Amino acid sequence: MVAWGHPVALVIKGILTAEDASRAVEHGAAAVYVSNHGGRQLDHAQATIEALPAAVEAVAGRAQIIVDSGFSRGTDVVKALALGADAVAIGRLMCWALGAGGQAGLETALRLLQEEISVTMAQLGVTRIDQLNRERVITSPA
Ligand SMILES: Cc1cc2nc3c(=O)[nH]c(=O)nc-3n(C[C@H](O)[C@H](O)[C@H](O)COP(=O)(O)O)c2cc1C
Q: Residue of the nearest CA to atom 11 in ligand 1?
């Protein structure tokens, strides 16, 4: 993939504010990666699910949006997709599954995650990811 004149796709990770999301796009990012690095850089950093809507708004379709940090259930993934993420990444969940059961453990974890996503979508009455939108999520007042 070639984006905005860069020889490789530029993905900028660690975005938590609308301002940084906009800057990332202005500097040619093909994807804005909303992340607090799993909370490993700054204790009590903002939760990415809370930072996501403002980043999505700032990017306004000019780049893909990836989000991670603390996603471990299908409901977590569905909420992020409904709030405008194009992809949800997982880190420690894979490590825990691998540690607990090796390859089989990882396969089980991914299958469970996929089932949870399907069940959550069914409970919401949607059959396609593009039917998910912000109206499906109740967010806390600012
Ligand atoms: C052991 C470990 C090492 C990591 N090292 C880096 C790193 O060098 N650079 C980085 O951007 N993120 C790093 N991360 C963060 C992950 O890329 C990712 O953002 C994070 O794990 C996502 O949150 P989650 O683990 O809750 O899914 C690391 C995470 C773990 C668990």
A: 37
